[in-house]
């Protein structure tokens, strides 16, 4: 498993649910006409609370007129977890926050580095503030060795780590009834589904037609939402609180942070197991 | 030839060239996801001066947040010129403002009815203010007889009309160097070209790729732009001033009004002929 520090300077922004129209022009361009922008990183997440946009500085330039866009102050760097095999389908099955709970998430939490997780079908992105990068490298270099590559810093994972003390979960959890499908789309096929995606992203409350989006396997996922009040960006250890118990139960999990809350996705047949692991209070069993 | 009074209540609006982003959300929905709106009439015209939108009252509801949208006060009705054969390709060749210059345009001008012309590949729309409809029906009923149809009023053309006295052209004319292609798209194929059209409509100055838009024939068109200062909506006879000389020369012409100017399109091999007809001053030859 490799950990890359990607060459992006990312901004995290939020758009109110009732104000997406003010950003439609920019979002459409970034989502469907990427070749017309210099943006190299674009993420769009809809939750009941808001729309979360993650873009690099070039992407942010596409929203000159969006006074409804709230952009967090910090600039973030992206750590990219990729298996040795790169992004092959085989490697894809090896991702998920569970796989990096002990090797990456826990050490960063131990050193008070706030992380913003963004799992995708192919890989996981761990966003950390640029100003924390020295700490990140110092922290992880205890477990990794440096290999300088052409266009990014490659940290090659070596040894496993002994599990730290159990972190108490300090934020309320919620399990929506929704079932989720985690899937991936070949960019080359994007034009053929553009109007459907436009419909889903901008003009529909639900998911009117997911026939195009059935994952290769038929696995469905359930969500654990973390946070009652918006979490903010300063608190450390939230991802670790969730990912470590799931890792201890060997439950594969995707983890998606948004501007206001965090979201862990686990295979639906594991949701009960995951909830019991997350709600288990060791101090009560002493 | 038939003239239909369509059941639309239309509004004519203008968006500044630098403010399209404020209307992108609504325009995309009307252009690419028509089934999600109750709008039955939508027209989008880009000129160097502005974007002109023509929508019915339902369509206008898609622009709640577009304070940059300037909507003309009047509500317009649409007269639709269709050949007997309806909208078959054969019939399409029979449209163009030239065909209705004497039978529709001239009589309306004679009775001081201001018209807003909108030619399309398939047919021509003559927009008149709702308040002028009684005058329109009275005027044209001298040359047409009424046939009441199921969902619209059909006026079936009977006799030709003697040409009225030559109307002097009172607005400056201009001939851009551009060559234009007048074409048509099967709505069923719209999704397959949505991203290309999005690119053309919103993110490109020019026409980056017109391979998809070559007309069945290879005929190209040249434009005569009418108006130095914005024409406004009150003046009568402008379309007549242009269409009658072209009709006298039997030059097929499409005519497109926008919020600020009028535009006549003639086959490029006819442009010199058209210009000489339009700039001929009978009073000078007396």
TrEMBL record, chains A, B:
Record's GO cellular component terms: cytosol
Annotated Gene3D superfamilies: VC0802-like (3.30.2130.10)
Location of this chain's protein in the cell: Cytoplasm, Cytosol
CASTOR ACT domain location: 74-141, 217-278
Residue ranges of domain Cytosolic arginine sensor for mTORC1 subunit 1/2 ACT-like in the record: 171-212
Domain CASTOR1 N-terminal span(s) in chain numbering: 9-69
Keywords: Cytoplasm
Primary localization: cytoplasm
InterPro entries, alphabetized: ACT-like_dom_sf, CASTOR1_ACT-like, CASTOR1_N, CASTOR_ACT_dom, CASTOR_fam, CASTOR_mTORC1
Pfam families: ACT_7, CASTOR1_ACT-like, Castor1_N
GO biological process, one term: negative regulation of TORC1 signaling
Top-level taxon of the source organism: Eukaryota
UniProt record similarity statement: Belongs to the GATS family.
Protein's UniProt name: Cytosolic arginine sensor for mTORC1 subunit 2
Organism of provenance: Eptatretus burgeri
